[in-house]
């Protein structure tokens, strides 16, 4: 398969508002294993290896990367894992705000994770999905 010009090939990264750039960057490095690149006074990029994942922007506004439908908080970003049980156990043992694992058959397995700024993420495991990293 060849890459065609003028096509969207995927999502490069998501932009996330944070109150304290240093603390938030350290949180992602410690708990999710990301590495920091392209740091400025007001932003930094988080990578896994050579792949961009998130771009954190310092924000003094109260809005966060989360929205609500009825009573349910929803996330804007979903991370992928190949071992949801181990990751869930590890994050929970660090006293992080994680939801319970939801086993949803052919849709895969999920749980939510909240960062120190109140941004909400979904963690997803699916064995029948093509993701290129």
UniProtKB/TrEMBL annotation:
Membrane-spanning residues: none
Stated name of the protein: VOC family protein
Family annotation (Pfam families): Glyoxalase
Domain VOC intervals: 10-126
Domain of life: Bacteria
Species of provenance: Heyndrickxia oleronia
